[in-house]
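User: I'm writing a tutorial on reading structure tokens. Could you give me a worked example: one chain, its sequence, then its tokens, then a sentence or two explaining what the tokens reveal?
Assistant: Sure. Here is the example chain.
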Amino acid sequence: MKKYFEDNTPTDIEILRKSFSNQRLFAPLQDAIEKANKHGQPRHFLKDGETVLVGSEQYAISNQWGVGNIEDFINDMRKLGYQIDES
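And here are its predicted structure tokens:
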């Protein structure tokens, strides 16, 4: 994900929604903070340097990865031209 944002500067969340099949991958930073406070545990990366700027708004990236969603993410990244090593 870090490499994607090094290579791209999305100006709108719709660009990300079209690029990634998991629509819960990104959340507005304030929403992610509110969820973390409500549940007592963050479900997104929230530390300095872990959020991303999309247009003029900060977004948090999900930290909820597992068997049920990682394959879609890998496939999405490959479709975007990234080489993923599964070793």
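What the tokens reveal: The helical segments are 2-7, 13-19, 29-39, 70-79. DSSP finds four helices and four strands in the chain.
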